Amino acid sequence: MTADSPDDAALPEGRATSSVRRSDLERRLPRSAPDALRFEPGVFVQQTAHGQGSAFIRGLTGQQTLLLFDGIRLNNSTYRQGPNQYFFTLDSHSIDSIDVLRGGGSTRYGSDALGGVILTRPLSLPRPGPSDEGLWARPRLRLRGASADREWGGRLQLEAGLGEKWGFIGGVGGRRVGLLESSGPVLNPIDGQLPEVPRFAPDGRTQLGTGFDELTADGRTVWHLAPGQRLTLAGYLYRQFDSPRTDQCAPPYAPHNECLRYEQQFRTLAYAAWDAEALGPWAHQARATLSWQQQHERRRHERPSSFVFLLGEDDVDTLGLTALAHPRPFALPGGLSLALSYGLDSYLDFLRSEATIGFSDLGISLPRSRGQYLDGSWYLHGGAFLEGELSLPQGVVVRAGSRLSWVAAHAPGDSESGSAPVERSWFPLVGHAGAEWTPVRSLTLLASVDRSFRAPNLDDMTSRQQTGPGFQFENPLLAPETATTLEVGVRVRTAPVSLQLWAFTSLLEDAVGKRPREARDCPPETPQCQASWSRFQLVNARELSVLRGLEASARLRPLPGLVSMASVAWTWSEGPNLSDPPSDPSLPFERRVPLSRVPPLNGTVELVWSHPLGLSAGGALRWASAQTRLALADRSDARIPLGGTPGFAVVDARLSYRRGNLLMIALVAENLLDSPYRYHGSSVNGPGRALTLSLEGALP
Amino acid sequence: MSNTSKSLHTNLPALMLAAALTACGNGNTGIPNGDNPNPGDAQGECATKPTYTENVAACVPLATDYQPRVEGSANDSWAACISDDNTYHPIQESISTIARVEGFETIARLLWTPGKVPSPQSFVDARVKYAEAEGLDSRVQRREDIHHPPPANGAKCRDAGIPELYPDRCVGPAKLLPILNDAFVKGANNEQPLVQAARIEASLVWFLYVSALSEVTSCGDKLGDCDSAWAYYTGGTARAAPIGLARYVKELTPETHERAYDATLAVRCWRDLDTAVPAANTSLQFQARTQLDTALLRGMAVIVRQRFQELTCTSGDVKQARWTFLRVMVPLMDRAARELDATQADVLKAQVEKASPDEVDVPAAVAALDVLFDCP
């Protein structure tokens, strides 16, 4: 495959980045798009459900990180605080690569890019082969099975083209995934007891509240309209069915058959992209996209013993427009060179939300006055930015940029539920500056400061929902949160060794966090709020929150055909205690506390041996230390064992064989030592000792 | 509280019966107090409700009882503690249980307001309230009766198949839930609405009773559950203006209510004296729980007693409703009754096994209750 997307969609230069390539995916056989990030430095993947996954980047996740697909935002205004499932809605079979930017990225990408940016590139069009003259087509079949969760499925793909004028790649896929077998329970560090989450089958290994079904379809076609001009039309469908939320299936202390499941988790993305070159001095390269994305989810919380079901259905339609251009680099006196890029983007969300309660023995279903969100809400955001890169003598490059954004939120009120209307708008101004110096060819020193932002979204300002730590209700008065990140890095690139070291400090101003609330604070007509063990409301912290960390990654080629890679990341966090101090001053009160679910010290090691004939073998180690620094909300979160999450080390072995572009066989034996383990903050323990097999073949 | 001649913890039925008949001066003779049967009103309700005049003057507290109303607990065996000011001091600022008891009151207004026959829509509305997230249904489904041993081999009532094997322990899912489910459906289908309302009422009243005791037990591991024990009885209210189960008890038998409230303070006192998690002083925990159990059982008995008496002056569906309430409640009380006096428990049980309410020997039932649960 070759790229048909321009570099415009690439991540900024001079920053801490890493990439997962298609060849990595073929070797590692990840279960999902989030799973594909397990070996990225500074990225820690949490799973609230077997059919969900959320990447923590530098200690932040969910609405505080930004997901992009082919340069188009996936984040919408319902992304919630804490982990979410939406990166899982990218079909890993349709992904060519995933780039990760660690640290803020709002100048280029706008709101939400506080902790980092994940940019996914779709499978791109193959170039015609020597025998592909005129109209040609090549079907490809990929089959996959895994023993840990009895997954089976596959993808049928078609690649076609008409010379250099037109190309197409698309496919349909599906899989059925059963209950996930782990190596057994991960016990509470405090008392050695079994945590409430997850529930196990009588074998003590198989995790209840797991498994799902999935269907995918995608198509991408590119026309070369004229020299230097290209039109891409693409559509990506993801349909996930019956995916239980593991920590709510069954909820802690509830009967075995009570379950919250995502009956439908759908995403549809369609877009047109126009790429052009040499349009003029101010648009040497340009790209414009027009997109429509629909996110649909239907949740069903069922209590079969009482014949009660609670249904929630939310749909978000997002219209997006982006434009990006690069002028031809300007030659300045003294041999200096200035490269600029500029652009604007805007997205508009329309939200529909409803909820019902029903009784299956009566056959009735009653609508509630409001859903998780306020039906009829909309959210507009966008901005314009300018970035520049100045190349100076002595290997020095200076970069800077700025963005002015606009954000407007509207939500109708609902008197029956005591929901206040929302009419808010903001105009955040952010930017970045950085420099790199390459004193010798193999060594680069980097430093940057970035200020990024996240404007409160409709989830923050209007949603009412049962979250992991407790019931969370809205705060329509939130202000944007900002992150100022200072980072310094060292890059070493030689033939046998490449190495990156990064250190960062992020200062979060007005950081949005969960503040414990009392029953009297609950909104009116919300008895489930008063009846919950814990209640939270998102608030802006009045003091700075801090994230600090170190990240290192290395790639070593000790022998021909042998590559070893390693990464390690450490993140430390602290923020103000958002709860009120006790009225009795003699009672202990921590004024500053860790931020929620920040990953522990963790790392990876991979060893890959490749033979020119296509055979490859290797192994991998994933490890994490225990995480016992818990936020207040973490202590009431059933996803975290009492006292924190124990550390782990998991060893995998891999074997694969590739014959050109026509045949690929890969086998992964994971968790060879059958170690019970859990990524911090997850409801799901990792798979036990198991095999995953992938077979791929194409017609010549 | 006990009468002077016995301890409620010795479980000596003969002694208790003798003591009750001779020393517990509540004036009960087996005949409703001054409330002879009357013909009832046009809707089948009693024209004049039988009244019960509580007289527990002969009952004296056990040596182990906590007595915050008597000189701030100065004369009892309990060490000084937070409850000595005769006020419940919540451990946590918010008590989620209060919302569930308020839900109970909402259901009560919808389904068993005197003189009103609930409509099918009322049953649906009540069920919506009952089924709210984190509401009554969620707790009925997981409620255990701590008087019975837990399932063997570490199994839990929430596990598949366990409620069927241990129905007494898993009282919520095994006994209460089927009644509630059936009654809500039949009520919504307009089948004997008063009867269905009575089934729901009896089930939920018993739920509140077992919940209070269950929370005292779990408070050994989770401090906030002591607040829930207090709230399952009182609805989180002060002595004088209770809701939920305490409202029932106070209306019929004020001193029993005071004693039950004392016992909730005893629970709080224990957790003030024993702040270890898990609890270190489990004997004090048991002492407080027993005091609460005794008072609550007496309260439940008086509620049942009143319904027996009302059989004599009600008619039609109203009478069927009272009868249904008793047929739900009395079997649930059988364990406690039988532990105290198997003979009287048999008398009580025999009354609700009669084919119709007209066959019930009300004086015999009332006498049995007065013997069994004579002192709070």
Question: How does this structure look, described?
Answer:
The complex is a heterodimer of chains A (700) and B (376). Chain A is built from 5 helices and 39 strands. In chain A, a hairpin with a 3-residue loop joins strand 37 (648-659) and strand 38. Chain A is globular, with a radius of gyration of 25 Å. Chain A has 700 residues and is mainly β. With 376 residues, chain B is mainly alpha-helical. Helix content of chain B is 54%, strand content 1%. Chain B has helices at residues 13-22, 97-111, 120-131, 136-140, 162-165, 171-188, 193-218, 225-234, 245-252, 254-273, 282-310, 316-340, 342-352, 362-372, and strands at 2-3, 59-60. In chain B, strands 1-2 form a two-stranded antiparallel ribbon. Residues 4-40 of chain B have low confidence and may be disordered. The interface between A and B is medium-sized, with 32 and 36 residues.
Question: Brief description of this entry?
Answer:
The complex is a heterodimer of chains A (700) and B (376). Chain A has 700 residues and is mainly beta. Helix content of chain A is 3%, strand content 55%.
